[in-house]
């Protein structure tokens, strides 16, 4: 496994923190789904906070799990927050709406130069 999921709770037991780290490739989505399910059952109408500070890669399967978790939180009356994402992981989560967009309100998209345009540069 190239990823880690650590769980912590506040003293009142109302907030469950999932500290994620490493490469969340397509094989990690099952463990992430299980960790979210356990976090929601522990939080009991509280909050689930996912700290993405140490995440280097995030597969589309894991993004789907995070979006499903958001839907579960809305339906179950839980708080749900994705924090500390950085780099391309942040950009991906901004595009899905799981992280707030930056103040400049622009999305980054690489420019792929092709054909005559690439030759001119």
* Fraction of helical residues: 25-40%
**N-to-C series of helices and strands:** EEHEHEHH
The strand order across the widest sheet is 1-2-3-4
Multimeric state: single chain
Proportion of residues in extended strands:
25-35%
Q: Tell me how many strands there are.
A: 4
Any idea what the CATH architecture is? 2-Layer Sandwich
Supply the number of structural domains: 1
Helix-and-strand structural type: alpha/beta
The value of Rg in angstroms is: 17 Å
How would you state the average pLDDT, rounded? 85
Walk me through the structure.
InterPro entries: MlaB-like_STAS, STAS_dom, STAS_dom_sf. This is Anti-anti-sigma factor. It holds the Pfam family STAS_2. This protein has 121 residues and is of the alpha/beta class. The protein contains four helices and four strands, in the order ββαβαβαα. The chain has a single domain, classed as Transcription Regulator spoIIAA. A four-stranded mixed β-sheet has the order 1-2-3-4, sandwiched between helices. Helix 1 packs parallel to helix 2. The protein is globular, with a radius of gyration of 17 Å. The termini are far apart. The mean pLDDT is 85.
Short summary:
The radius of gyration is 17 Å and the shape is globular. With 121 residues, it is an alpha/beta fold.
Keywords:
121 residues, alpha/beta, Transcription Regulator spoIIAA, four-stranded mixed sheet, 40% helix, STAS_dom_sf, MlaB-like_STAS, Anti-anti-sigma factor, STAS_dom
Could you outline the blueprint of secondary structure elements for this entry?
Elements: E1 3-9, E2 15-24, H1 29-43, E3 47-58, H2 60-76, E4 79-83, H3 87-96, H4 115-120
Parallel strand pairs: 2-3, 3-4
Antiparallel strand pairs: 1-2
Helix pairs in contact: 1-2
């Amino acid at each position: 496994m190239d990823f880690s999921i650590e769980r912590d709770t506040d003293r009142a037991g109302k907030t469950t923190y999932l500290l994620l780290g490493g490469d969340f490739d397509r094989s990690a989505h099952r463990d992430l789904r299980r960790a979210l399910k356990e976090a929601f059952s522990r939080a009991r109408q509280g909050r689930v906070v996912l700290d993405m500070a140490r995440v280097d890669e995030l597969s589309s399967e894991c993004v789907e799990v995070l979006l499903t978790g958001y839907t579960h939180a809305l339906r179950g009356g839980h708080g749900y927050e994705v924090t500390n994402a950085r780099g391309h992981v942040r950009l991906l989560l901004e595009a899905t709406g799981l992280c707030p967009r930056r103040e400049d309100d622009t999305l980054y998209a690489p420019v792929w130069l092709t054909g005559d345009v690439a030759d001119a540069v």
